[in-house]
Amino acid sequence: MKLENVLPADIERRSFEIIESELPHEIDSSVKSVVKRVIHTTADFDYADNMRFSDGVIQIIKNAVKNGADIVTDTQMARSGINKKRLKKFGGEVFCFMSDEDVAAAAKANGTTRAAASMEKAAGLGRDVIFAIGNAPTALIKLYELMEQGKIKPVAIIGVPVGFVNVVQAKELIMTADAPYIVSRGRKGGSNVAAAICNALIYDLDSGA
Amino acid sequence: MKLENVLPADIERRSFEIIESELPHEIDSSVKSVVKRVIHTTADFDYADNMRFSDGVIQIIKNAVKNGADIVTDTQMARSGINKKRLKKFGGEVFCFMSDEDVAAAAKANGTTRAAASMEKAAGLGRDVIFAIGNAPTALIKLYELMEQGKIKPVAIIGVPVGFVNVVQAKELIMTADAPYIVSRGRKGGSNVAAAICNALIYDLDSGA
User: Fold this and answer.
1) pLDDT in tens, B107-124
2) Is the ipTM above a cut-off of 0.90?
3) What is the DSSP letter of A88?
4) pTM here?
5) Strands A129-133, A70-73: parallel, antiparallel or unpaired by DSSP?
6) Which of A2, A14, A187 shows the shortest C-beta gap to B165?
7) Which of A19, A42, A152, B49 is least surrounded, with the fewest CB atoms within 10 Å of its CB?
């Protein structure tokens, strides 16, 4: 099997050409760069079908990022995958509270997950926050509760946890909350998917798209 | 849709029960914990079919970890996802050289990728290294070349890059090299998959499995 002769700088461009040519159907142009970057990250064309976007969410997130909004993730891995340098250009930062001692203590005291406890901590930030949840359905459920209680008003929720227990349900729930969302319906998702969605929007913005 | 009432501590156990019950066919017991953890990380049962293991690779990696071998990744995200605390129990560390300035400079000077340059840097470590490659096919190609030149002798190569350009070819190539391997054949893989494979082996070892 022969290697394709592609310069390092051209690998990404060539990859996106291949993805474009293999899309199973047309994707709405407003969300296409997000869907394609998720497929680029997973090589899984299921994402051409399972992603749901609330009305105007792309523009809402882009405007918020432009105005310096922060991103809160539920894993260090998602935090690690987001291009923090390019986000910083707009003034935003990426936070993950999962390893914080106070979060571990609160989770233990309340018999909940660290992910849920870290959402409570994020609610106390008092800043414009985009949530990027790639792992814990309990984070989405806690965000739903905090919104119901009027304790938090997220800019938007990127709800793409992966898994087998309460993942499907938590995503359906978050789509009924009063917040803009991007969701991968079903079991699939992940920290890599959450990071890819954030990066697609940051890159679009940074390149003026 | 009703939430399943599962205690935080039981979510992982319950998830693995579901995965076990939905496996499309029997998986060899020697590699089953790895395959199941990859499915746990991706919710993608394609991994029940696309993974390839060289003879004895599981035991080779476990023995090396037990003796303090290090892991080198090709992304900060994979590094972030590996359970470094539990690896440290055995004496090993996880390195990723992708953000190092000397690696960026070497890549630029040689017209190659930072991933390839970071493999060259790893070759200079002079330690027992398990490579966990979840992103860059160029890292696998460089490892192949370094082995051909006798400049490196990896403990094993976890070769699971994801993508569309030279990914399939690089994985096929690395399976012909003189090193134990775990590979996800085809386009699929990722930093999350690389980390999941490492963690499955570390957890098995740590629990005495």
Assistant:
1) 999 988 999 999 999 998
2) yes
3) H
4) 0.96
5) parallel
6) A14
7) B49
